Structure formats: structure tokens, C-alpha cells
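Lab meeting prep.
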Amino acid sequence: MSTALPHREVRPARGSSRAGRPRRRPLSIRQRDQLTGYLFIAPQLFGIAAFVILPLCLVIWFSLQNWNVLSGTSTFAGADNYRKLLADPQIAQVALATAIFSVGLVLLNIPMALVLAVLLNRKGRGIAFFRTAFFTPVVISTVAWSIVWQFLLQDNGGVNGLLSLVGITGPNWLQTGPTAMLAVIVVQVFKNVGLNMVLFLAGLQGVPRELQEAARVDGAGGWRVFRSIVLPLISPTILLTVIITIVGSLQVFAQIAVLTAGGPGLSTTVLVYYLYQQAFQFHDFGYGSTLAIVLFVVVLILTIIQWQLRRKWVFYEN
């Protein structure tokens, strides 16, 4: 007489599915955190790739072409556009105008913004109004701001009207080279000084009051406290504002186009406006792309130099 053995259910081995395929191991906590981080930065990476890296590569490719927009033809030119740049008789004057504009903007904007921030870094009636008033031009349309100043700087404009009240006959500011460059610089300073002022205000409000009070107790005057304590502590903010101002000065276009159109002559033709003329007025996109590469290299070099200098004059707590 035989005895039947009880039936046992055969379970699949651990790590395998019922269909015989291996089952995926669940992600660890670290892997899930990494995946979440990549998903968060994916839109930014896509934006950089689509709107920065790809256009930059296309500009480099266009700089190697002779692109006739009117006829719709494009031929490979190699380094012809770069040789044209070296032989361009106007590029020296354009570079000089760009340097004067950038240096003048930095020398006026940074000290003025710092002085305004120091004056407004206190509590009192009307301080909020003045902070808002100085920052308001930052959010105004650049074209509208430039058009208003174009009327004010004319021969019979508001600026010369004010000067005539004190017996001064003002020039036609936008029609002579030196005054045209000065006018463009001043208009740009008044437009963006509020932004640097706000950055300096944030830096000044982060300076510990205890350090300043301790220095005054030791006999330091107001200027010594500012020079020896406040300035070193806000040096990272100064570095940031200098970088922003220099990079921004090399990209100014609307003010030049509205106020002077690069004139008189080439006295206010900065590199960005010269690039625009070559590419969109003379329809030489190959040479315009070459100028864009030069502008990119100049901005990159200046930014790297300033960033390297931070080790010598920027104070960090650590």
C-alpha cells in the first residue's frame, strides 16, 4: 500500500519573478536622492544646452562661414573672418570706445552705489522712499529711459535749460565725441546704480554691529571703522558688483542705439553695437559672429582675472 506525499507549492527563488525573469532591485535611499536631484536640475540643464551651448556652437560655426543673407548662400571660409578682424581699420577705435565706456561706468557706478548704500543704511523717516526712488530706474524700460534722456540732452533740452539758470551754456551733448561718450556713461550709471546700491545695502546690513562698536570704543573714528572693518567684510559684495558691472558694460546696446547710434563717427560705437552693425545692417553674419566670439572671449578673460584676484583682496570668514 503506497502513501501519497503531500503536494508542496514551489515558490520562485528570491530575486526572480514568476516568469523566470530577474526582479529589479529597489533603488536605495541614496540613489533615489540622486535621481530626485537630477530631475530637479534637468530643466535648467536643458535650458543651458538649448539656449547657451547650442547657440555658442552655432556662432562658432557661423564665424567660419561667408554667409550672404541677401542671396541665401553660405560657403566655408575658414579663418578668413578672423584675418578680416585683424585687418579691420575700425576695430581699434571700437575697442578704445568699449574700454572707455566700461572703465568710466565702473569708476562712476561702484563708488556712487556704495555712497548711496552707506547713506541709506540707517533707520529714519523717508529712508524707504529714497531707497525706492533710487532703485526705480532699474525696473524702467531701457528704451523708454533712453528716449527720455535723448530729449533732455538735446541742445534745447532740459539739461541745458537747468545749466542756463546758472549762466552756463551747455553743448549739444550727443553731437560731439567726448560729451556723447560722457552722456552715455552717465545715463547708464543713473539707470543701474540702484541695483548695485541694493547689493551693497545687503552687504552692509550683514556687518556685525558689535565689531563696529568695539572699534569705536577702542578710539577708531568713523572713516577708520569703515576702511578697516566694513570694507573688508563687504569685499565679496564688492567683487560681485564689479563683475556684474563690467560684464554688463560690455553688453550695453539699447542706450547706444537710441541715444547716439554709435556716433558721432565711431566715438560711441562699442563692440556690441559694432557687432550689430556688421551682422544686421551690413548683413555680414560671418564677420558678426566673429565679433561675437571676440566679445565672449573678452568677457570670459576679464571674469576669470577678477575671480582669481579675489584671493588677494576678498575677505572670507573661513
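Slide two material, second protein:
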Amino acid sequence: MEFLYQYGLFLAKTATVVVAIAVIIVLIVSAKHKAKKGELEFNELSEDYRTLTDDLQQQLLDKKAYKAWSKQQKQQDEPKQRLFVLDFNGSMDAHEVEALREEVTAVLAVATAIDEVLIRLESPGGVVHGYGLAASQLDRIKQQNIHLTVAVDKVAASGGYMMACIADRIIAAPFAILGSIGVVAQLPNFHKLLKKNHIDVEQFTAGEFKRTVTVFAENTDKGREKFQQELEQTHVLFKNFVHKHRPALHIDQVATGEHWFGYQALELKLVDQLQTSDDYLVQQFRCKKVVQVKYQIKRKLAEKVGLAASTAFTSSLNTLSNLSFWR
């Protein structure tokens, strides 16, 4: 009786998980079918800064002094150089790259060699293929001979640093986290639990290493060894990529999987300057027209719920699947 009770409890839990997954899949499909095409939004940050400055001066100066200051400002020439600002706040699956590619395409349609692009980058890393594509989007800017600056205020680790290293110049806040040039993968294995409850899992593959390690079947030493080899190969590719874009780095010193704060990263040449994105922008406002470019998808409430479910479901699958991570 005790066995039947435990077995029934196990089946109930399994059924609950299956039903939950089915509901999430329905929401995902619904969201994908209903999602509207996004649109580009432009915000002239330099104009906002001038308005802010003007308001403060009007409050601080007497009428005569303000009038003289205002006249002087109007006599200044309109800057010819432009700074395009893009924001990338990356998650584990790097789905934000879909917006990034639209933003980069828009900038490249109008930018010239005298312009500059600033990426305000925040990411702890994630899946290899997602961040590989994100880095390729930044490389598109470099290929057009447009100066690229990356600003890290909080974190650009692992896949995030893979993106950052593309830049001509990396600036970082003093206590921003950078580095973590390594690869990790982990997944649970339920084989013993299934075996205890007399549940068999049969796995069929064509190709010796089509599946190296798995969640439900019994893993073998040979499969584990092959999977470790794949992680090592990915790490080598990661190291070579970073070293190609930042040749001054002592790559073996920094590619240990460790992360560093901004102060340490500067000494290790992982970054070029300690500075927040705010300070950098204030400097640019004085000599360039600064425009923020953002690709925004308009969604209804049901679509937002579906996207949230999609993100949670994808994160769960990534944890359970045979994926490598820049972490």
C-alpha cells in the first residue's frame, strides 16, 4: 500500500507538471501568433539635456544673466557629429537580440564614419548561440567603420563580456562586474528516481554522440567525457574571440572563469576607462547630437502574459537541457 501511495503521488506530481507545461505552450503559441510588429522609437537625449540645463539656469540666474546665457547658447553651431545610444539588458536566453538587430539596422541606415554608437550594456551572460548572435550585431557596426563604445554600469560577464569586447572602447563603473570568461553547463538527472519507481526511459539516437548526457536516461562515463570535451572546445573558441578583439589582454590570465570589479578590470586591461555611462553622455552632449534608438514591440495584456510564460518556460528548459552557457 505504501508503494502504491508513493507511486500515485509521483504520478500526480508528474501530471501537474505536464499540465502546467501544456498551458504554458498554449500561451507561448498564442503570444507568437498575436504579437504585433514592433516599431522604432527615437529620443533626442541631447535636447532633453539642453532643456534641463535651461530650466535650471532660469531658476538660478537673474533675468539679465539668464538672457545673456540664453543668447550665447543660441549662437552655438548645431553639432555635426551624432551619437546613437542603444540599450541592451540581456537575459539568459538573450531574446533581446531580436530588438538589437532592428536597432543596429536602423543606425547603420543613416550613420557615417564621423558618428559614434554607444551601447549601454548590462548582462550576466547566457546561452552560447544567443550571445554569439548579439556579439555579431555589434560587429556589424565595426564593419561599417563606425566607432563603437560600450558602457558597463553594473555587469557584463561571460556572454555579456563577449559582446563588450567587440567595442573600440569599453568604459565601466568602478564596481561594475566584468569578465567571467568561461563556460558552464549543468542539468539534473532523474534516472535513479525513475528507476526506484520502476519507470523505464528509452532513448533512441542515430550517431554515437547525438546525445551525450540526458535528464532522464542513465548517463555514461563516455558521454560525460565527450560533453566535457565540447565545453573545453567552446571555452577555447571564447578565449580566441576575446583575444582577437582585445589583443593586449593576457588571455590565459583572465580566461579562468573569474569575474572582476571595474578597478581590477582596468588593471587587467579588460576595460579602458573607469567612467559611468552618465558621465560619458554629459561629455558628449557638449559636442554631439545624441539620439537614443529603441525597438519597441506593442503588446496587449494577453500577449504580455504569454511572453512572460515563454521566458519562464525557456529558462526552465535551459536548466534542464544539454546547453552550454557563457558563465
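Talking points for slide two:
Residues 317-327 have pLDDT under 50 and may be disordered.
Residues 208 and 223 are 9 Å apart (CA to CA).
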